[in-house]
TrEMBL record:
Cofactor(s) for this UniProt protein: NAD(+)
GO cellular component, one term: cytoplasm
The enzyme's E.C. designation: 5.1.3.2
Cellular compartment(s): Cytoplasm
Gene3D superfamilies according to UniProt: NAD(P)-binding Rossmann-like Domain
Record InterPro entries: Epimerase_deHydtase (IPR001509), NAD(P)-bd_dom_sf (IPR036291), UXS-like (IPR044516)
Entry protein name: UDP-glucose 4-epimerase
The protein's enzyme class: isomerase
One Gene Ontology term of the molecular function aspect: UDP-glucuronate decarboxylase activity
Main location: cytoplasm
Coiled-coil region list: none
Keywords: Cytoplasm, Decarboxylase, Isomerase, Lyase, NAD
Length: 339
């Protein structure tokens, strides 16, 4: 082969293998889902720019990726404009745990709304495809069960959860208005409760709380009587769904539910975690937070039809991996304290 047209210095024949590689921006890339997404996109050969203000995200989530020359991190708050050059954008920036998103509710709404405007403006300038990490919270405390994408939801606009729920609803509106008004290629995923390694050990979400409490032999805190339900999706399944959605046909905009339809009561989750960790923890009951949804289960017919997607990891398998992740975190913290 005549290589005379190629620059001789720094020429890497492997580059030819990556002609389909893209430059991809992941906002919120240092968080739980974002860190797995960055890893999966790098593994596919793409260049990844992670943008994060490190509010709930952690550098340690990204440690395995730092040596990859196709990976970059930029500390930046998405409520401010961002000028970079990329081909695709996954917009994940936003705290997801009620404990964190209620810490500074005004900033939470700004992150969803101003963040969406800035990322959509960036996508518009570049004509880049953009995916929004929306949420099952747009259904609020649902009166339709299981939740289908055409259900408009039952959301309190002025409660403690509203900064998150209404911020995410407004972000969806913005995505669809940029689509209709500016012809922007958009994708909107409505993500249901997801768990797995890289969850923040004290972010207050139910899986991290229960596993950390069980491993420490502390009481398991059930809010309410534990009869409320959730459906838990393991992180690898969710990331697969997001990547499939981004790669889907142009006319597939969503919204599309992504979650595991196996529904269980919070009390059952507590009992499963106690059994799997062989913990002696007892159950304690605390007041149910305001507007805590009573039941939640995704209808994933649309994701099956349009993305050929369905979760593969059963709860106990996913919990096993998650429990061993939290065991390692505890061991590392104890090791550091003893030094
Ligand atoms: P997370 O809190 O672990 O990650 C969010 C990331 O966004 C963090 O790294 C945080 O530092 C960053 N961030 C927050 N505000 C920012 C800002 N203003 N500018 C830049 N970065 C900012 O949460 P997660 O579970 O990884 O969730 C990721 C996305 O998925 C969120 O948008 C969340 O709403 C959505 N989602 C998650 C779940 C779930 O169960 N994990 C469910 C539904 C929706
Ligand atoms: N924006 C950005 N990066 C870009 C282009 C735009 O962050 O590369 C932000 C900018 O703050 C702008 C917002 O996105 O206000 C919306 O952009 P758009 O072009 O839709 O509207 P504008 O406000 O510029 O009229
Ligand atoms: N929950 C609980 N104990 C905890 C943390 C949460 O009983 O220590 C309950 C919470 O009230 C809710 C469910 O578990 O009914 C899921 O809570 P999470 O914060 O994980 O997510 P979300 O409410 O946003 O679905």
């Amino acid at each position: 082969m005549n290589t005379s047209n190629f620059p001789q210095d720094g020429y890497d024949p492997d580059d030819l293998l990556h002609l389909s590689a893209k430059r991809i921006l992941v906002t919120g890339g240092a968080g739980f889902l974002g860190s797995h997404l960055c890893a999966a996109l790098l593994a596919q050969g793409h260049e990844v720019l992670c943008v994060d203000n490190f509010f709930t995200g952690r550098r340690s989530n990204l440690r395995p990726l730092l040596s990859n020359p196709r990976f970059e991190i930029l500390r930046h708050d998405v409520t401010f404009p961002l000028y970079v050059e990329v081909d695709e954008i996954y917009n994940l920036a936003c705290p997801a745990s009620p404990f964190h998103y209620q810490h500074d509710p005004v900033q939470t709404t700004k992150t969803s709304v101003h963040g969406a405007i800035n990322m959509l403006g960036l996508a518009k300038r570049l004509n880049a495809k953009i995916l929004q990490a929306s949420t099952s919270e747009v259904y609020g405390d649902p009166t339709v069960h299981p939740q289908t994408e055409d259900y408009w939801g039952n959301v309190n606009p002025v409660g403690f959860r509203s900064c998150y729920d209404e911020g995410k609803r407004c972000a969806e509106t913005l995505f669809f208005d940029y689509y209709r008004q500016h012809n922007l290629p958009i994708k909107v995923a409505r993500i249901f409760n997801t768990y797995g390694p890289n969850m923040h050990p004290d972010d207050g979400r139910v899986v991290s709380n229960f596993v950390m409490q069980a491993l420490a032999g502390k009481p398991i805190t059930i809010y309410g009587d534990g009869s409320q339900t959730r459906s838990f999706c393991f992180v690898s399944d969710l990331i697969d769904g997001l990547i499939r959605l981004m790669g889907s046909a142009e006319d597939v905009t969503g919204p599309i539910n992504l979650g595991n339809p196996v529904e269980l009561r919070i009390r059952e989750l507590a009992e499963t975690v106690i059994r799997m960790t062989r913990s002696s923890s007892e159950l304690v009951f605390e007041p149910l937070p305001q507007d805590d949804p009573i039941q939640r289960q995704p209808d994933i017919t649309r994701a099956g039809r349009l993305l050929d997607w369905a979760p593969q990891v059963p709860l106990e398998k996913g919990l096993e991996t998650t429990i061993s992740y939290f065991r390692k975190i505890i061991a590392a913290t104890q090791g550091a304290a003893e030094k």
